[in-house]
């Protein structure tokens, strides 16, 4: 008996960060966003969703995990306004039922990302966490001002690593769509398979282009070799003709201007017949 496919929700692309100010006097750099989008892989390290960047250890506590970040991308903001032209980081999220319920009630509608500027031994930025919050001031401009005047960062204890950065909280509008999860297949596996299909198509197209270029280059190379061989043969023939011409010219130069006549014998010019 076949198991009924499980259905999970996957959010549509949602903006979770914008280049600019962070909560500890640093800037969320454009290249960080680009590096995170390029390198993010849940199998290497999956960024989980938490409350207020607080990470509890009890599975039923108030600060449990509320989902995962499935994938990332970057886009420049095109809408008119203060953020136009800035680079934004977008994510697709796999929520838990609790996060869906909170979102349905209009709770925890702002998000803030936790960035490790030099993740592991890569030396590049990586997304290590995503927090949801009700109050943008707690992770926004008011907290930014407070941190700037504080001797020690009040958010330091919430970081996975002391060098990590929390972005200023921005409003996040979540919309979900159902994704079937077949038996023995995780949602991440399904998403990765879909992305891999596109990558495989792109790789095949590039392989076809490379093969075509190689065939054209090979054909042109053969033609050049043939032309070079024919040119060499023509040059040799030309040299032989030039040599023969020079020899003939020398021979003719040694000949007298007029041909000599046979000497006269004193006899008649009539032909005689011996009968």
From TrEMBL:
Domain of life: Bacteria
Coiled coil: 224-251
Keyword annotations of the record: Coiled coil
Cross-referenced InterPro entries: Capsid_scaffold_GpO
UniProt-annotated stretches for the region Disordered: 256-275
Protein name in UniProt: GPO family capsid scaffolding protein
Originating organism: Edwardsiella ictaluri
């Amino acid at each position: 008996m076949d198991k009924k496919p499980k259905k999970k929700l996957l959010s549509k692309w949602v903006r979770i960060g914008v280049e600019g100010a962070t909560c500890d006097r640093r800037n969320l750099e454009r290249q960080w966003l680009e590096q995170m989008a390029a390198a993010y892989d849940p199998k290497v390290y999956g960024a989980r969703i938490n409350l207020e960047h607080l990470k509890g250890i009890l599975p039923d506590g108030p600060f449990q995990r509320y989902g995962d970040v499935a994938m990332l991308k970057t886009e420049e903001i095109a809408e008119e306004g203060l953020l136009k032209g800035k680079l934004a980081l977008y994510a697709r999220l796999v929520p838990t039922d609790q996060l869906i319920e909170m979102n349905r009630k209009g709770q925890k509608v702002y998000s803030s990302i936790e960035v490790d500027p030099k993740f592991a031994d890569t030396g590049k930025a990586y997304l290590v966490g995503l927090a949801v919050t009700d109050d943008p001031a707690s992770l926004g401009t008011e907290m930014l001002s407070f941190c700037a005047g504080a001797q020690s960062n009040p958010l330091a204890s919430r970081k996975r690593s002391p060098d990590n950065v929390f972005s200023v909280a921005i409003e996040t509008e979540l919309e979900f769509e159902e994704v079937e999860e077949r038996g023995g297949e995780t949602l991440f596996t399904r998403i990765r398979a879909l992305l891999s299909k596109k990558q495989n198509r792109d790789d095949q197209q590039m392989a076809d282009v490379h093969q075509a270029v190689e065939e054209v280059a090979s054909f042109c190379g053969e033609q050049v070799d043939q032309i070079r061989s024919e040119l060499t043969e023509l040059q040799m023939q030309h040299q032989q003709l030039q040599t023969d011409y020079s020899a003939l010219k020398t021979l003719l130069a040694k000949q007298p201007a007029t041909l000599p006549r046979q000497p006269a014998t004193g006899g008649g010019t009539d032909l005689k017949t011996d009968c």
